[in-house]
Amino acid sequence: MLGLIITLIIVGLIAGAVARLLVPGRQSMSIPATIGVGIVGSFVGGFLGYLIFGKDSADGLLQPSGLIGSIIGAIIVLLLWVNLAGRRAI
To answer: Number of folded domains in the chain?
Structure first.
């Protein structure tokens, strides 16, 4: 269980950092927020992978994905974050 948590944190940090590098503009986020975006992005990527490919249904609809799926999911989550934060600031 501890190994899973550490793996989620490391993959979340990598996916969140890559997403922040790929999304244009300035995101004022802390390192824990970047890790959170990466972890949520991992689950979003797993959900999208299930919807697109229909595999791993035994694991359920909400599951962590691989690194590429995590990065794609983190980009989606970060774009939503930036759009919602922009609306709130106005």
So the answer is: 1
